[in-house]
Amino acid sequence: SGTLTYKLTHPSWTFDNEGNLIGTVTIRDVVNIDRSGNKFTGTETVDVYDNNGKLLVHFDGEVTAVRINPV
Q1: CB–CB of 49/60 below 8 Å?
Q2: Of 7, 36, 48, 63, whose CB is crowded by the most CB atoms within 10 A?
Q3: First to last CA, the chain
Q4: What pTM, to 2 d.p., does this model score?
């Protein structure tokens, strides 16, 4: 969406303890990568829906990450 800024959407599903589909989750992020490419910061929203599409839970938050090098 801009220089070093990315919008991400992660669809997912939710299941009960017996493995039955009970709803969906949509995770949306807007992240800004620093010029080194080794860190990012941004915002995140998480929306949880039941199988009928009714919004059950909404979360807003911030995300940060730092690249790690495997040993």
Answers
A1: no
A2: 48
A3: 34
A4: 0.80
| Strand, helix or coil for residue 8 | strand
Alpha-carbon distance of 27 to 11, in angstroms, equals 6
Alpha-carbon distance of 27 to 58, in angstroms, equals: 10
Q: Point out which residues pair with 5 in neighbouring strands.
A: 2, 32
Q: For residue 44, what are its two tokens? A: 């995140």
Residue 65 CA to residue 19 CA, distance in Å, equals 32
pLDDT digits (tens, 9 = 90+) for 3-62: 899 999 999 999 999 999 999 999 999 999 999 989 999 999 999 999 999 999 999 999
Give residues with Cβ within 8 angstroms of 59, minimum separation 6. Answer: 44, 45, 46
